[in-house]
Amino acid sequence: MSEEDPDRHGKADHTHGPEEGHGKADHEHGQPGEERRYDRQGVKAGTWVNRAVLALVLIALAYIAYALSAAFFPRWWAQRVGDQVGGELSAGTLWGLFYGFVFTFIPLLVLAQMRRSFLNWTWRFIVLAVAVVLATPNWLTLAVVLGNSKAAHAGERIFDVEAPGFRNAVAIGAVTGLVLALALVGASIRLSGRRREVKQLKGRLSEREREERDRERAEREDERRDGG
What we know:
The protein is elongated. The chain contains seven helices and no strands. The N and C termini lie far apart (109 Å). The chain has helices at 4-16, 18-85, 89-111, 121-134, 136-146, 150-162, 166-227. Helix 3 (89-111) runs parallel beside helix 7. By secondary structure, the chain is mostly helical. It has a domain at 88-223.
């Protein structure tokens, strides 16, 4: 019996082999960590590649849209204005003043709302986009006057024949709308500043009155104590 016990214990020790089992476990557990780290780096690289491709696609689409717009909208806008004016100088002047003033004055008033403190950056970008869209008639006129495309030159000829006086009237109306919008926004800013000053003064007066009431109450209490 005493000779068989060591053999049994020896077999048991050999069977449990702690070092080899833990080594395999450590080796097996080490590989997934390395794979996860590698995948993380790959995801970051792939994200930047996707962003670069998206930026290039957006730039290409913007260029295509600009090319198509430059080839179509100047002539189209000049034809619409020519249909409204009908070749009359008085009508061209009145329509030019209308477009220049209204579509400069209103977009600038909308753009001034970006200064509102309660708007976050998302809403400020939305306000900016709305202001740009509202000024579309003036952008189209500017594309005809300053454009170098064939459509722009065709639009200039249409303005000369069918909409006399329109371009100069648009410029006068735009300058007038700009001046009035800046004056109105400036007056609004000054008025808001004065309102803040009045509010601050009222707060200071109320605080001073509170301090005086507290002091008078303290004096009356002192008099009562002295009289008592």
